Amino acid sequence: MGTAMPAAAPTGRPLPFTGAAPKASPVRRPRLHVLDGLRLIAALYVVAYHYTAFAEHDPRPWGKPVHEVFPAFGRFSAYGYLGVQLFFLISGFVICMTAWGRTPKEFLISRVTRLFPAYWFAIAATSIAVLLLGGHWLRFGRSIDQALTNLTMLQDPLGVSDVDGVYWTLWCELVFYLLFLAVVAKGLTYKRVVSFCGLWLIAGVVTANSGDGVLNTITMPTQAPYFAGGVAIYLIYRYGPDLTLVGLTGLSWLLALHQTAGQMSAVSGHVGHRLHWEYAAGFVTACYAVLIAAALGRLDWVRWGGLTTLGALTYPLYLLHEDIGWAVILHLHGAVPPWPLIGGLTALFLCAAWLVHRFVERPMSRYLKRELGRARVLA
């Protein structure tokens, strides 16, 4: 972990590991458009999972078991829950990349302005829309107290149900941000970031079966391999591959496969049929492989600027699609054929996501950034 780090190439790509010290200010590199594309793929796979494979409903939105509506496609979309793991892997990469060179205040403000504006809107929109559509049956009863507690994004540790089931991932993101904030406060260096990832992964292994809720919240044995793997792959992107980073990435991948195996029984229950670990492991491995290829510059040819816009839609799309979509399906499945209904819903939520990004996220983020920048407590 204490090995010297390679310099950045004049072209902006990292050199192979040579043992030379890195430049103080690495050359600015072009945007990795492939990450935006991966985010979109992850979001759409999650949408497909919820609409065509997830079977734990009472009453059923489709009026009958979902595997009877999508008998073939549902076998593929049943693995869409892994889109969330791809989100976590990308998040580790992107958070480390955007945090480098920032102060703790700048990092904290960037995370608050990224997470909360669309989230607050989604809580209000989901609560109102589902109640108006008569979909209050969806998993949890909604109350004003529940919605207000959800606004804090701390409902998970407080034992309050999510307004929409997809919000469970936000607590995982928040824990990761707070843990990484401690490293940002010390100053991001190769050695500190590698040490953080290694210690976090080992802590997750040690505490996985401890039964201690607090320890498991901090170590996140199920999600930490993806976050840490993304961070390690970013270090490969920034400094080039070396044995330490290859080993750290490999460890996170192996732990991710182990956690995937442990989830098979529970997810099989969610979709109503047996899932195969080999297929899930193949998807997880492909996610790692694509991100590593991007880090090594193999995907620099992906330069379509439209992916930037599409990538920006993934967060509001993810927040809005599930419970509102189920409520719409409940009302329309008898009048609209399944595939046109799914296609129309997906297009509708992509348009809604653009509107939220354009008219909620961007202006509110600018406002929060300006006001939080003035906050004396963050100075």
From TrEMBL:
This is Acyltransferase. The chain crosses the membrane at residues 38-56, 76-97, 118-138, 166-185, 192-208, 214-236, 243-259, 279-297, 304-321, 341-360. Residues 1-24 are annotated as: Disordered. GO terms for molecular function: acyltransferase activity. PANTHER family: ACETYLTRANSFERASE (PTHR23028), ACYL_TRANSF_3 DOMAIN-CONTAINING PROTEIN (PTHR23028:SF53). Residues 35-357 form the Acyltransferase domain. It comes from the Bacteria. Keywords: Acyltransferase, Membrane, Transferase, Transmembrane, Transmembrane helix. InterPro entries: Acyl_transf_3_dom, Acyltransferase_3.
